[in-house]
Amino acid sequence: MLLPTNISKTPSVEPLINIWAERYTVDVSSLSKNPKFYGELIKAAWPEARALTAAKLLNRVLVRTTNQATIRAKSLYEYIPEIIDSYSEQRITQFACKVYQRLLEVYQQQSGILVIPTSRQTTTSDDQQTTLLLWTIPNIEKLVNEMQQLLLTYQEQHIMARDQRVVGFLTTLFNFTNQSLISQLTSAEKVLLCPYFKFIEEYVAIPWVRVCAAAAKYQLGSPALTLVEQMLPMASEISSMVYCRLLELLPNHRSLRGELGHPQVTHSCLRDLDMFQGYLWLCVLEESLKPVKQELVPLCVMVMPSVGVKWEMTDKWKRFLADEIESRVQLEHKPLLLHYTQGMEEAFFAARKQLGYQGDVVEVISEFAGNLAVHLNSENAYETMWSRQQR
Known about the structure:
By secondary structure, the chain is mainly alpha-helical. It has helices at about 15-20, 35-45, 45-75, 85-110, 140-160, 165-180, 185-205, 210-215, 225-230, 235-250, 265-285, 290-305, 310-330, 335-355, 360-375, 385-390, and strands at about 25, 115, 130-135, 255, 260.
């Protein structure tokens, strides 16, 4: 859920902003083995080259690919009963074009690349090179300021629709458009521009900016802030570990997008696991379960009647995620963590009780989480492509 958010420049906020920005960096250590491609990358980063890239996407393919993405998104959401009429479809497509136009404007403004050693790597000998990160988004705060109001307006499209499930349609439209635009880029352009596409996709689904803003009230070294600072950099690794455990245990599990090992489902699972972590840490810093109760649970309830998934997988999904996080948390922080992980389960149970569902408590809690996972499986097809390009 997008909310108007101002990021205060305080000592407690800046570390989280840096951690967030690192999600959109690229490991370029391997480029030293390919000087030709490194030269192509430098040329693609010139202001003139960025302008040509933006013009290529805007003039040739943006409107066409957005329209195609709309068609694909509608076919994916056939379970939504006539909530996207022709007028809504046209309005949403036009607005998506505005979002990408603004994004490409920012891309041109943030010309240049910055390659610096990551703080988490050190050299132990003259023969060992420090890992180099390519900061393709030099100023994430500026990007937030440029895009926030436009995306808030974009979010309002689903509020005006007759059924809130159209929020999934909107996110899907972003993902499919990203796919189509990426196919038009050269290898060097993909390295520079794909982080911007990834940013847009995550910004509308994962509350990273709200997590950063919530840190403003804390003093450095406070338990909640320390916990989040320690865990946020591990988010992608935690998601990968949980996904691998699920794939090993349930290799034949299928969702609406296909088998668990399908590339698009892989992406979706990783994205969903990141999202759950984002909401967990937002609750910790806001000292409230409202984000889960008012956003995460309603989304689950929203898609539950329309999307089904075996509870066996989703129960293990939830348990594996909690176990993986707990195994990495320092002992003194576990009581704080458990307060919110248990609170999340209680929030799902309360919704189940209110709706009058019958059945085993564990199954219902898992099904809530699983339906959200499957719903978002339908939304995401871009991040796996991006991740594999980086590897």
